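Researcher: I'm preparing a figure for a lab meeting and need a structural model of a single chain. I don't have an experimental structure, so a prediction will have to do for now. The sequence is pasted below. Please return the structure as tokens so I can convert it later.
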Amino acid sequence: MIKLELTTRNIPLEDDVKRIVNEKLKKLEKLLVKFPPDSIKAVIMLKKRARRSEDDIYVTNLAFYLPSKIFHADQDGYTLEESLGEAIEDIKDQLKKHKEKMKIY
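Model: Understood. Here is the structure written out token by token.
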């Protein structure tokens, strides 16, 4: 299980937000089976930034800690799910590249 530190700015921290975050983080778990569960941590900051136009922008800042490395992703989107999903995909790509590097050695 990934330890989670979740904070928000201009977004109420409701059960729906927590559910969305946990669903998205589950996509990473299959890449992390070799690590002890208590050694993995995700620090997520979700923000809603008002713009002068009608559309708000959602920003996800994600730091993902493994025992051997720290991964970062910052993504914007027109919805919270889009922003968070793109950040998770970015971390997923970084994890795959890191895993391939580790196979070389």
